[in-house]
Amino acid sequence: MTMSGTGRWGQRIRDRVAEGTMGELATELLKIAVANRNHWGGGWDEVLDALGTLSAEQRTRLAGALVERYHSVGSASVARLNVLTLLGVVSRGLPEDPLAAERRQYLDGLGRQYGYGYGARMDVLAEAELAAGRPLAPAVVAAFRRAGVDACHPEYVVELMKKVTEPVLNVGEEWAEQAMQDGSAPDWQALLAHLTAATASKPSARWDKRARTLVELLGDDRVRAAAVSWLALVGRPRTLPLEGPGYGADVNTVYDPYNANALRGLAWLVSLLPPHPATARALGALVETSLKKVAGLGPRNPKVANAAVFALSRLGGESALAELARLATRVTYKNTAKLLDGALQARATALGLSREEIEELAVPAYGLGEVGRARHDLGEVTALVEIQGSRAVLSWRNATGKAVKSVPAAVRRDHAEELKDLKAAVKDIDRMLSAQAERLDRQFLARRTWAYDTWRERCLDHPLVGALARRLLWTVDGTPVGFANGELSTLTDDPVKGGEEVALWHPVEREPAEVVAWRDWLERHEITQPVKQAHREVYLLTDAERTTGTYSNRFAAHFVRQHQFNSLAAIRGWRNKLRLCVDDEAPPATRELPRWGLRAEYWIEGDGEYGDDTTESGSYLRLRTDQVRFYPLDAPENSAHCYGGEYRMRLRDGEDPVDPLPLTAIPPLVLSEVLRDVDLFVGVASVGNDPAWQDGGPGGRFQDYWTSYGFGELTETAQTRRTLLDRLIPRLAIADRCSLEGRFLHVKGERHTYRIHLGSGNILMSPNDQYLCIVPKSGTGSPQTGYLPFEGDRMLAVILSKAMLLSRDTEIDDPAILSQL
User: Fold this and answer.
1) CA–CA distance from 550 to each of 436, 595, 637, 659 (Å)?
2) What backbone phi and psi angles, to 5 degrees, belong to 424?
3) CA spacing 20 to 30 A to 206: which of 55, 97, 163, 443?
4) Domain locations in the chain?
């Protein structure tokens, strides 16, 4: 029994009705229900249409016959759903509503699904419920709306949704449920309904006009307060968990697509209100939440992120500009990053400034009255906001000036709004500190220079940026300087009162003795740098690279986790395309260097076979690395097959191939910074860093690589770590149990002596160099080691944590570690 043959089934139904044999027709329909397992084909729709043309008397007799046969079908079979679908058409408008409870049970199940096959015609069941005078459950409405948002939805889903207007948003997401609870009045309901019409990339003039009208009825302040509170709930776990299919992604981590339109509308809406710091903060958070990666999918919802960027770009005000500048240093998703760049460039052009200048001017003070510090008097209590290292800290003093650990009750009672603003400012400072540290780090390669007075204003004396800039080294008219004891001074602590031009100091341009001297200077003044500078790795040409001439193999033949590599590359300003296990080509990972007229390339290829070595979507889990090369900025692009093979230059009509540039022609600063990036990619993303891969990973095929990387020669980054540990160990409480020997930190415990590799953090223990697997916790922070000269080396923290643990190995109570000891 098949469902093919247009016109055939309609005629057979009419023949059976004419014969008056409703029992036979019911039996034949039952066979069709059993045969139509996937609900595809025009025959099924033809059957439903034909049944709808029968008279009420004919449908009454047929409904009874179908009910008699319903229970003969397996209780968990698709055929039962098909019979209910048939009954949904046959019984519509009849006094009796047969098997209504069973129909509602199937619809309730639909409410727990993210989506469904359209051929199932679940709309027929919904129409039957509505015809019986019963509203659809909110979760069921949500399921149909999700189907209606799908570009491939059939027209009957759209027609059904025209009849259902409540609830105004889909249930299941905390922000939407809170919005419906807060906005139950008619004016609010109208506003929420308008938000769902935000289906374009940008609002039309008509959409904006209607939004302004609705806001006027409620008031700017009320709308802003409500909208900001709703946006704060976006991304929280679903209140009604759903089941797949999610096409490889967890459906409970993505936005409901119907509500996502409303989120875009909400972002547009708040940008029509007068500028306010809370609005800008909420929109910035929406961008980041919407771009959070979902396994098997990628960014959660780029369209919502892009809507929030658009909203920030037209919101205006200092806070919105600050969010745009902050996001520009953090966002790696290409389309959203492009929108951010365009928004900042447009603002810069309007003000007659460069892109670099607008980013500098965009950094607010966040209430800091002096560099890194603010004092707020709240009655008899004083609140202090202080930047300590890479974060802001809020502390309290009572009326006598004594420090108190928690927020005083009087502040909670009498200054609730000020307290809320202070806590928000601390969070804003933390986020901006991280963004500004990354921006300053990029200036090494950008070779940014400042006029002295401009630099003092925007960097050294800026209330927020100054907390970072005062911990870096600079050159004033070529003279290296640092900031200590409240003033700029030279290496010999001679004060520097002024100058003409300022730039960041970089060790590649300095003699080793000067570099060491500045490290001593920083240590003497106990300055912890926000990024590596005095201890920054320097990558000079090797003899091997002089021999190869035009490429470096220094970071070739590694196996790296592709998605981690891709994220790191984007953060460092590289352009990369995920390798899929398909018949396609891709360019190498590329960093364009307009300031130098150069393009750096890191050649990579996918590793493995489809299945065990790929995600469900087909992207490789791991990459193999190859050469680093440099080309002129405008040279044609190279590409190679995703699963490997020779890189070849793509030439357009009339183009000639361009040879890679000799490494000797690359400025030392550029070579060093590019290779430092590549060292970072390998050092963080290499499978050799995984302590659980001592068995060689899938099939054991990475055993040799894991061993050679995990215990092999140290890279420049690891050498820097070794140099630091040499100075740091004598200050540790466990100094008498530690020593540096070659590539390892040796730690003497009571049970064994341990060797921790300074590159990977992997451990060998006596006797016989037996491997010890200790998987660091994801939140491993810096152990209490006293002064450190720079921030951000997580592997250093891991090594020190392991050293402190193993020095007291008789106190270890972790069963996974004890079983190995």
Assistant:
1) 35, 21, 16, 9
2) -65, -40
3) 163
4) 8-162, 174-361, 373-524, 543-685, 706-818
Question: Rounded to an integer, what distance in angstroms lies between the CA atom of residue 602 and that of residue 339?
Answer: 26
- Exposure b/e, 620-648, CB count within 10 A at least 16 = b: bbbbbbbbbbbbeeebbebbbbbbeeebe
Nearest to 210 by CA among 225, 183, 190: 190
Compute the distance between CA of residue 124 and CA of residue 576 in angstroms, rounded to an integer.
47
The distance from CA 25 to its chain's CA centroid, rounded to whole angstroms, is 57
Helix (H, G, I), strand (E, B) or coil at 693: helix
| Residue labelled with tokens 């050294």 | 460
pLDDT value at 7 more than 60: no
DSSP string, 40-64: -SHHHHHHHHHHTTS-HHHHHHHHH
Cα(679)–Cα(555) distance, integer angstroms = 7
* pLDDT, tens digit (0-9, with 9 covering 90-100), for 55-107: 888 888 888 888 887 777 766 567 777 778 888 888 887 888 888 888 888 88
Distance (Å, whole) CA 616 – CA 249? 9
Phi, psi of 590 (to 5 degrees): -130, 135
The CA distance from 630 to 659, in Å, is: 9
First-to-last alpha carbon distance for the chain, in angstroms, is: 67
Q: For residue 459, what is the DSSP state?
A: I
Residue 794: pLDDT band (50, 70, 90) is confident
367 is written with which tokens?
Answer: 């209430």
What kind and span of H or E run contains 395? strand 391-397
